[in-house]
Each structure stands twice: as structure tokens, then as C-alpha cells.
């Protein structure tokens, strides 16, 4: 019986910690991205019908703001 597990994201080759690898930040960043996308993508699609540029900005917000801010705030 297989279940769906929590995705583990690894980012190696950075200078933010002595190990030069990050696991916690990218994993939490992905989870925050997914949670924000569940809310913002349908709203952005609705807004896109009336204001194209505003709808694109709303739908891009999880990838351009949420994910980078979470992975940069957690150094491990």
C-alpha cells in the first residue's frame, strides 16, 4: 500500500551555510508555494478574464514572491 509522502527538495551548491546544501528551506518553500497556488491561481484566472496583466501577476505571485522568500529566509 503506497501513500503520498511529503516532497523533499534539496538545493546544493549555495553559500548560505557551511554544508553548502539546503533541505528544510526548499521543502517548506515548496509547501508554501503549493498552499498559495491553491488560492491564488483560481483567483488569478478569474481576474485574468477582465484584467490580463493583473491576473498574470496574481498567478505568478507564488513562484516569484512566496517560494524565493521562504527558501532565502531558512538557511538550512
UniProtKB/TrEMBL annotation:
Transmembrane segment boundaries: 30-50
Keyword set, alphabetical order: Membrane, Transmembrane, Transmembrane helix
Origin: domain of life: Eukaryota
PANTHER family referenced in this protein's UniProt entry, alphabetically: COLD-REGULATED PROTEIN
Protein name, entry field: Cold-regulated protein
Amino acid at each position: 500500500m503506497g501513500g503520498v509522502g511529503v516532497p523533499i527538495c534539496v538545493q546544493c551548491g549555495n553559500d548560505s551555510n557551511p554544508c553548502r546544501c539546503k533541505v528544510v528551506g526548499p521543502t517548506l518553500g515548496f509547501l508554501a508555494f503549493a498552499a498559495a497556488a491553491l488560492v491564488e491561481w483560481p483567483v488569478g484566472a478569474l481576474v485574468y478574464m477582465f484584467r490580463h496583466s493583473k491576473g498574470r501577476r496574481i498567478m505568478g505571485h507564488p513562484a516569484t514572491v512566496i517560494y524565493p522568500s521562504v527558501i532565502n529566509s531558512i538557511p538550512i
